[in-house]
Amino acid sequence: MHLGENSLAVGKTVAVVQKMASGLRVRQVVREEGQAMVPLADLVLRAGDSLLVRDYSNKLKEYEEVLKAALHSDGRTVSVENPLRADDQQLAEFVVMPSSLLVGRSLVNSFFAARFDLAPLGIYRRGASLLSKDLEKETLRSGDVILAQGSRDTITVLRQKGDLTLLDATTDLPRSDKANLTLLIMLAIVLPAAFNWLLIAVTAPLGVLLMVASGCIEWRQLGASVNSSVILLISAGIALSIGLVKTGAATFLAQSFLAVTHGLPPTLVVGV
Q1: Which of 4, 163, 264, 272 has minimal Cβ neighbours within 10 Å of its Cβ?
Q2: Which fold is adopted by the domain 89-173?
């Protein structure tokens, strides 16, 4: 968040600014000359300073309006052409163990977001889900499960370091910015096959390649979606059907079925 000459935060301390924008957590202050400073409560902010903050998108926009500052993402000012976005995000669950330093402390007091680079979304506690506005002020207990969002790299590092006890369940967030492109590719696959312009065997592989090339899906996701059991089942089914046709068993079964159902009403035949 960049502070211009007209920003209401200029000339005020970090403590005052955080009171002006309720819920604002400044992780770092960067001066114009590139000097990174710890956001001490009595640090006076200047024009040209950049505040490194982390929060939900609606809260960031609220801070921007209150402080008359300018949000920046990826080195550019946030606008309609350059909206706030965070690719490669995952949802993960973390267990608060009895020996954890988080026990007896809130997410705010333990600096959870700043320390682990995660955005807490909810807390599960013995049959009750806590999803309130005061989530970060809730005192954590042993056995609580924290649902948090972060980048894949961050979660991988936390799993390796063991700073938090991570459950096996992690979920990739959907890439909503690719939704329209994905729908267009799906139509490009289905419509030519539906109107007999091209075979589905041709359009389907081309569609998969387009989705991978455009970034709608990744090779990793493509491999994970292929189930070996399904492939084995299809292969076995093809082999069985070829064997039935070659040996004449398919004809025998069809004739036997006709002999048994001969004279029955059409509805009953279809039901059988």
Answers
A1: 272
A2: Alpha-Beta Plaits (3.30.70)
Token pair 């807390």 is found at 123
**Are 14-77 and 89-173 in the same CATH fold?**
yes
Pick 112 or 238 by higher pLDDT.
Answer: 238
Instruction: Supply the pLDDT for residue 251.
Output: 92
pTM assigned to the model: 0.47
| Residue 69 φ/ψ region, left for φ over 0, alpha for ψ in the -120 to 50 degree band, beta for the rest | beta
pLDDT at position 76: 63
- Residue 157 burial (10 A CB sphere; 0-12, 13-18, 19+): middle
In tens, the pLDDT along 64-89 reads 889 988 887 666 666 656 565 666 77
Relative to beta strand 72-73, strand 145-151 is unpaired
Calpha distance 78→84 (Å, rounded): 6
Write down the domain spans for the chain: 14-77, 89-173, 177-226, 229-271
Q: How far apart are CA 49 and CA 46, in angstroms?
A: 6
Is there a contact between 113 and 25 (Cβ–Cβ < 8 Å)?
yes
Asked if 3 contacts 51 with a C-beta cutoff of 8 angstroms, the reply is yes
